[in-house]
Design goal:
By secondary structure, the protein is an alpha/beta fold. It has two domains: 151 residues, ATPase, nucleotide binding domain (Nucleotidyltransferase, domain 5); 183 residues, Nucleotidyltransferase, domain 5 (2-Layer Sandwich), CATH 3.30.420. The chain is built from 15 helices and 14 strands. The strands form two sheets. Strands 5-4-3-2-1-6-8-7 form an eight-stranded mixed beta sheet, with helices on both faces. Helix 11 packs across helix 13.
């Protein structure tokens, strides 16, 4: 089975191709092919690879999402060498859809009704769902009637307890769909499964706190393989400090700025989503690597940004531990979680009181999926490589098998 995975964002689009024979393997296989498009005001940067080799890299000055995507996907059957005989050789296409609204707790084969539901949920995720829907429609135009599967980032958190899902506003908010949805669920679920494998335990016996730390950041409290709490909420703006997003703030700040600075909804949205977080505090970058480099050179604002990030991360990990009544493992994943030894060390130092002890040597040079715990640690510390694409591909296999 040849499975194309498309991850359509508001300013980027990633694609990859898997080729699976028989039942999907337990561990992720390598990509057969992968591509990334990043849009800016002046055009798009396109990068295509097969295996470890770069096949194509170009700056495209103009063109619609459909035109550029069609050109990129054409590399599969028009490239040198061709990786598939033609468009009909693609058996199924899987899509990451950020928001499934109240309807979807599991992946769904795309139908007109599913597309309508994704469109309706766009009011909750106006930057993300329209891009995902456009990706589905582009595939319809390029590949015709190929089966498509929508995998929802909110799905894993859809059944968190009512007390965790409900905001303490007017009760009528619930009937309007205003509740905690949570995001990054595809990767949180994968990390739960992979952690059980790494620890040699049944997933149903584990209590885990998973830390998805990238440009977007969220935590999940997972008991027995089910999410029971998470830090992102009604939108991906809630919770932890992020690259350019503020995370949780006093809502009174918003009303104050609206009154004092006459800011409208768009200005507030831009302020909290694009001008805050690591970039807003440091004035340097949304990239944790640049923050750490600057603070080591004595930059005070970079140090403040790092310290705020750690303070809020530690505070919310503590709340996840409390919700679970303790944890068997703390899991770090995604760009910062996998690559920043400084963030892991600063975070774990706060949890020695629960018996968590980090091995400094292992932390400084972790493997892709590794246990960084000291031998005496009662709570394990794991690093797990994010595998959203493979999780989507596996869902496609399961839906169509």
């Amino acid at each position: 089975m040849r499975i194309l995975v498309l991850n359509s964002g508001s300013s980027s689009q990633k694609a990859c191709l898997y080729e699976i024979s028989g039942a999907p393997p337990k561990n992720p296989p390598p990509y057969l092919w992968q591509a990334k498009i990043e849009w800016s005001d002046s055009g798009a940067d396109v990068r295509i690879g097969a295996g470890h080799a770069v096949r194509f890299q170009q700056r495209v000055s103009s063109g619609s999402r459909k035109e550029i995507t069609e050109k990129v996907l054409g590399d599969l059957w028009k490239g040198s060498p061709a990786l598939v005989p033609g468009p009909s050789a693609i058996d199924v296409v899987g899509h990451r859809i950020v928001h499934g609204g109240e309807k979807f707790s599991a992946p769904a084969v795309v139908t007109p009704e599913v597309k309508d539901a994704i469109r309706r949920a766009s009011e909750f995720a106006p930057l993300h769902n329209p891009a995902g829907l456009e990706g589905i429609e582009i595939i319809e135009q390029i590949l015709g009637s190929v089966p498509q599967v929508a995998v929802f980032d909110t799905g894993f958190h859809r059944h968190i307890p009512e007390a965790a899902a409900t905001y303490p506003g007017p009760h009528e908010w619930l009937s309007r769909g205003i509740r905690r949805y949570g995001f990054h669920g595809i990767n949180h679920q994968y990390c739960s499964e992979r952690a059980a494998e790494m620890l040699g335990r049944e997933e149903k016996s584990l209590k885990l706190v998973t830390c998805h730390l990238g440009n977007g950041c969220s935590l999940a409290a997972i008991r027995g393989g089910r999410s029971i709490d998470t830090t992102m909420g009604f939108t991906p703006l809630d919770g932890l400090m992020m690259g350019t997003r503020s995370g949780s703030i006093d809502p009174g700040i918003v009303t104050y700025l609206m009154r004092q600075d006459r800011l409208d909804a768009k200005a507030i949205d831009d302020l909290l989503n694009k001008e805050s977080g690591l970039a807003g505090i440091s004035g340097i970058s949304n990239d944790m690597r640049e923050i750490v480099s600057a603070l080591k050179q004595g930059n005070a604002r970079a140090k403040l940004a790092f310290d705020i990030f750690i303070h809020r991360l530690v505070s919310l990990i503590g709340s996840m531990f409390a919700v679970l009544g303790g944890a068997d493992a703390l899991v770090f994943t995604a760009g910062i979680g996998e690559n920043s030894a400084d963030v892991r060390a600063a975070t774990c130092a706060h949890f020695e009181f629960v018996g968590l002890k980090l091995d400094s040597a292992k932390n400084s040079k972790p493997s892709a999926d590794g246990d960084l715990s000291a031998p005496a640690s009662r709570v394990r510390t794991l690093v797990i490589h994010a595998e959203e694409d493979w999780s989507i591909a596996r869902s496609c296999c399961e839906m169509l098998s």
